[in-house]
Amino acid sequence: MPRRIPHTALGGMRTPGGFPGFLKTASVCVLMAGLLTPLSPAAAAAGTPRSAEAAQVTAANDHCGNQCSDILPPGQNGNATLAQILLNQAFGTQPAHAEDQLGPYASLAKGYSTLTNATINTFFNDASFGVPADQVASTVKPAGRGDVTIVRDKKTGVPHITGTTRYGTEFGAGYAAAEDRLWLMDVFRHVGRGRLTSFAGGAASNQGLEQQFWRNAPYTEADLQAQIDNAVAANGARGQQALADADAYLDGINAYIDASDSGRYFPGEYVLTGHKDSITNAGTIAHFKITDLVALASVVGALFGSGGGGEVGNAISLLAAQERYGVEQGTEVWESFRERNDPEAVMTLHDGKSFPYAVRPGNPQGSALPDAGSVVEEPLVYDRTGSAAASSAATASATAAATALGSARRGMSNALVVSGDHTASGHPIAVFGPQTGYFAPQLLLLQELQGPGISARGASFAGLSMYVELGRGQDYAWSATTSGQDIIDTYAVELCQDDHHYLYRGTCTAMEKVEQKNAWKPTTADGSAAGSYTMRVWRTAYGPVTHRATVGGKKVAYTTLRSSFLHEADSIIGFQMLNDPDHVKGPQTFQSAVQHINYTFNWFYADSEHTAYYNSGDNPVRANGVDAEFPVWARSAYEWRNWNPATNTAEYTPASAHPHSIDQDYYVSWNNKQAQDYATASWGDGSVHRGNLLETRVKKLVQAGGVTRAALVKAMADAALADLRAEDVLPDLLKVINSSPVTDTTAASAVSRLQAWLTAGGRRTETTAGSKTYADADAIRVLDAWWPLLVKAEFEPGLGTGLYTAFTAGLPVDETPSAAHGPTGSHAGSAFQYGWWSYVDKDIRAVLGEPVRGPLARTYCGGGSLSACRDVLLTTLKQAAGRTAAQVYPGDDLCAAGNQWCADSIVQRTLGGIKHPGISWQNRPTYQQVVEFTSHR
Known about the structure:
The chain is 34% helix and 18% strand. It is an alpha+beta fold. 60% of the residues are buried.
């Protein structure tokens, strides 16, 4: 058996990616870079091989029995020197460990059908603690310290960090993080501060990215520091330990910056963006400071952990419904499309227990709906000059605003967890992980941490990896999905004196102006012409201003108040607990740990005996009668209970009121509804949701019994290729069409192709691995073209153009793999999360006369007539069948028009200088674990 080095527990951005016109000088630059003769990172850190005699068979604290696996494409190494970047751009060569997890990850799409437990690690990494002695690639004492060792394995280059002191362990974590992700960490500390363009260049995508995040977290430096101070003060000894851990982590990062700078092996992007000189080494890489960690956390929280918002948009669509149908019927129609508590929705907790939250009040109080047509979005960007005034910049700003101000389109991630009562071994099995998009380098990094009070392996966001955030401990594993419950409310502040004063508890009070001025000039990496602008946010006690309007003729500003605003650092305590083997000893202590995480996540747990679930987030207790769906007046009677505006703290719902469970027969989550009566902020939690793709498959496995790791991976992988519309809606559409013989040859041919694809499983999968051509390609093209046509023809005549448009603003019609959507843009893998599939499903079933629980308030397809509905479907189907592939897949900067496979493909979006090839589409977590523990402490 291989011997392992033991670990014991002692207690849309654009950065270098294109280089237009740059490769002409690549060979010259490579020669120039070669003349610099940089030291290797390992040599600079005085690394020495670890002797085999020091190894033991296995780590004594590992209870996984070689049955823990994980994967994180494209690879562990996210840093590249200038020479490596130029070689990659010119010849496609990859730095070591930059891409070695991409192939196994991609191969699962065609390899899962024959998967066995024995072949799981063909597609995943062995996630056991330690490194087999014959697999040690390097052993480093960072900065010559004697209290920490970083061992990297030959296969993936993942750092296994062992400290004899707590400080040394965290120092090593910081050093290894910088070694793997320094440029990315630097990019995102600037994104969090709204300073990306000044740092990385003025490309329109960079402008959009910094605007998207800074709009929701417009913090001053004092704000960032105060969040650290408050989190430490509020958490006693654990708060003090978190501060000490963060300081040690920062020391490790900065030690690597100094070593790489003097050794000239720092990331080459610093040269390409003008921060360093490749000849003289002039220029600096700024040290990291503790407020950078808060800036980074604000980006992660906004991307994945902040449910809610969109109340102004909800109000606009409600007014449109009431204008169309009258107040009473219009409200009924609106509520039926909102589906806040749909009885047909798939739920993570299916034991029937109710967890009421953000439910519709019987007698709403304090509503501040705008006067029709009065809403104006608050500008963010002022004083544009140069390229900031280009049309592409304006488009990027509009997209950023829509993303930032929309309601809860921040999901992704899935989990499949089965109790030991239904597995072949009698031990629970979990296959779970976050969908964080695909980037190069990846937002997450892998690591193993072993030291006093820390024992874990898994993934962490780069720059926040003082603890493992998703992964495994000695005898347990955990993961999360975005939950999206509503922790964001919109208040209408009445203006007084002028547009920048408002009534606050009876006093006319000045708004606070917060600004960020950015300017840029062309660089080798980003040739965007020089430009500049100012981002300006007006802050009130009730949060930043997002819109202006009138309510009953009174001028108001709408503001957004988020419970995690000014509390981006608070979750550090929960992650600290998850890494502490002395804290997490079972499902109850796991739940107590994640209760300290204030972001909105679903948390899942498995050990050798138990499974568990908990929904985290600081859910504010709202005043009686307040409807969380709409803006309310900024008055004391409608504020969060016991709200303190100085600290933005309030009374939060107790842990017992959050959906939670231990040892349910199985859990599935794909950002679906958590539990009965627990309202999520996003639209579309109805009868058809991508969570159904997991529910159907896992329920079938559990009913059969004897579930294995391979079987659960297969269920995930099969769902990852499924077209939700085909699997759950197309059968009823065809039932309507086939209610009479189809005589039109064009329509009949399309129906035949769709039926054949449905019979084959309705998957979007290659004919053979690497063919880059879909089986059933024509049927897929037809459905992709048909869906938006049929939805519009089905609903717009009944709703009217105004209301239909308002509803599509709240919930897009479709989200195919080729769609550009959400913060991660196109080619991002995640698909079928938001769309009108529930509406179509419920409406078509009603037309067919089938029972529908929670029906739409009216029947829309053909006005409820089966024959008229059939005509609508056939007419749009014929239109779709006539659309060419080039019309359906118009192409982008990566794909030619008409290339269906490429349009769907996953691409690692470049955040640095290294590029990777696209892979075939899969709808699965970016980082994923497969775990089955065999024993417990």
